[in-house]
Design goal:
With 309 residues, this protein is of the alpha+beta class. It has two domains: 6-18 and 139-305, Beta-Lactamase; 33-131, Orthogonal Bundle (Arc Repressor Mutant, subunit A). The protein contains eleven helices and ten strands. It has helices at 27-32, 50-53, 67-77, 88-95, 99-112, 129-138, 140-156, 198-205, 209-218, 232-245, 287-305, and strands at 6-9, 12-15, 115-117, 122-124, 159-166, 169-176, 191-193, 248-251, 258-266, 272-281. A hairpin with a 2-residue loop joins strand 1 and strand 2.
Amino acid sequence: MEKHRFFVTGDKRTSSIDQRTKIGFHLSFWLAFSPTIGKVMTASSPPASPALFAPTASMLDKRDWIAGLEKGLSIIESFDDANPRLTASQAGARCGLTRTAARRYLLTLAHLGYVASDGKLFWLTPRVLRLGQSYLESARLPRIVQPFLQRVTAGTQESAYVSVMDGDEIVYIARNGSSRIMNTGYVLGSRVQAQVTAAGLLMLALRGPAWLESWLAGHELRTYTSYTIASKERLRIELARVRTQGWAISEQQLELNYRGIAVPLRDRHGELLGALSVTMPMGHESTEDALARVLSVLSETAQAMRHLI
């Protein structure tokens, strides 16, 4: 579990850092942004998520690329824990837009109900949650896995999750927890640095060697606890071990006294779709006892899902 400040809200615990859900988008927002709005971007300030949004010849023809949509999304992503309220100048500076262009996007978002303003500062409204909720309600995978997560929880009495990779982070798209642990875990849509979670370690380890080396070369390893793997050489060794054994365990890397165990989630063709995992307090249970209690349940459940996803 991530070593950040957490706020307990009902049956979910949310992190105060890196909790922006960046999935889905409302059609009315797409229509609102014309390619002619906010064309000016500073040469030294790239879009907020170039890896996610940058068009390539193999992905999207340049004629079909709507720069206004990219910039509108980057405005939403400019808000975070450290910047909950921004002026137009601040928002523009964070995503490479001029003040004038940023203000036009913010006013359009305000008109659509996605941001609010006091005339100077802008902030996100709860309507933004519709974007991620649209994914959770329409995507096939979160709906299919829910009964299986219930099986994992019943068999382990721990919180069970399905997560997928998005860039350098994992995103939790489905969860289930017993009444004993309703107030722990991640809210749906939470984003966590991949290398400090069992699910993330697993999905990194199962990537190709060339991709992994490129990721390591361009990625700074953040430290959350004294147990966090902060050396790239140590991380290479751990990822090789995970790749060989086919499952991952992470203990106290993200939050003290918590461990996670994960297995790969594959479709009927063997393609990796995500990870099935549990997160639990360590208590006095040894690593060996936790693996003996949980790993077989996870593996059997992942295998049972394979022909349905």
